[in-house]
Write a structure and sequence with these properties.
It is a single chain. The chain is of the alpha/beta class. The chain contains 12 helices and 14 strands. Helix 4 packs across helix 5 and helix 5 packs antiparallel against helix 6. The structure holds adenosine-5'-triphosphate (ATP) and magnesium ion. The site of magnesium ion has 5 residues, from helix 1.
């Protein structure tokens, strides 16, 4: 199992600091980078893949700088970019066979490997269809399959669930869980539920920095005492929704149930509750993640 060390990794784009002195040690397990748009997730992942050179700092794999390892390091890597490119006129099977050849997967095992990957991501029966006929979820699954062709010890997935429906998301999570043994899996998302159940370590990223890191329970511990529940009259609920960060809101009879995040008690009668990762996201990013936006839309 390789060990990856990020040592004060920084990336500037002209005057913009996209990644700011990130230091991390990554070993076997699933690492979930959670952050809003523009937090620096893709930039950091591209540097870990070696496709982007840090402005300063170093990334080492088992003690050696990855740029010096070059091909040897790439052999360990599987990467699903955020803007994953494919050939729409290729069939899924042909596409994977083509990429297996590009990744120098030995010819005698490549055919079997492609079939194994198609089975793993549930595309076996669609392998002869052109990719242009695939749904967004099927394309993402194909992207995971291509990243796994060389049986990588370091698997990097940038927003692997974007465009997936809830059922596809669950399927994706199960695939990642099954794959995590004996690998470093790094994935980025802005959707809490993608990483809540499968990540060994959550890393909250904002403005190029890692704000918090740890297991789900360690990270949620950081907002202990700041999450509140309250059953409000509809008008009062509107006012509280304006004034506080609300992580859940739903109609409950003729009242409105609110779950909100606040350093101090938001109103008389509010009850402190145990925080979840969704509350943590709201606390650090002060914006509502996709999941909660959907909840609110349904409730109102
Ligand atoms: N090639 C580039 N040239 C200039 N600025 C860039 C470039 N790539 C990224 N940036 C800037 O760096 C910051 C971090 O971008 P990045 O794409 O890494 O964020 P992200 O967390 O992946 O966001 P998203 O969730 O939207 O994918 C942003 O402000 C972005 O505009
Ligand atoms: Mg990104």
């Amino acid at each position: 199992m390789p060990e990856l060390i990020l040592d004060r990794v920084t990336k500037h784009f002209k005057h913009k600091i996209a990644v700011d002195q990130v230091s991390l040690r990554l070993e076997e397990g699933v690492y979930g980078f959670l952050g809003a748009n523009g937090a620096g997730k893709t930039t950091l992942l591209r540097m870990i893949c070696g496709v982007l050179k840090p402005t300063s700092g170093e990334i080492r794999c088992d003690g050696a700088e990855i740029r010096k390892l070059d091909g040897e390091y790439r052999y360990l890597l599987g990467y699903l970019p955020q803007d994953f490119g494919y050939y729409p006129d290729f069939t899924a099977k042909r596409y994977l066979e083509y990429l297996a050849a590009c990744k120098a997967v030995p010819k005698d095992i490549s055919r079997e490997k492609v079939q194994e990957m198609l089975r793993l991501v549930g595309l076996e029966s669609d392998q002869r269809a052109k990719i242009r006929t695939f749904s967004g979820g099927m394309i993402r699954r194909l992207g995971i399959a291509q990243a796994l062709l060389n049986d990588p010890e370091i698997l990097i997935l940038d927003e692997p669930t974007s465009g997936l429906d809830p059922k596809e998301r669950i399927r994706f999570r199960n695939i990642i869980s099954a794959l995590s043994k004996g690998r470093i899996v790094i994935l980025s998302t802005h959707i809490v539920s993608d990483v809540e159940f499968i990540a060994d370590k959550i890393l909250l990223m904002k403005q190029g920095q890692i704000l918090e890191q740890g297991s789900v329970s360690e990270v949620t511990e950081s907002v202990n005492g700041k999450v509140w529940e309250y059953l409000a009259e509809p008008e009062e609920a509107m006012r509280l929704n304006e004034a506080f960060a609300v992580s859940n809101l739903r109609n409950d009879g003729d009242k409105v149930y609110l779950r909100l995040v606040s350093d101090s008690c938001p109103c008389h009668g509010a009850r402190q509750v145990k925080p979840g990762l969704e509350d943590v996201y709201l606390y650090y990013f002060e914006e509502v993640s996709e999941h909660v936006e959907n909840l609110e839309r349904r409730a109102l």
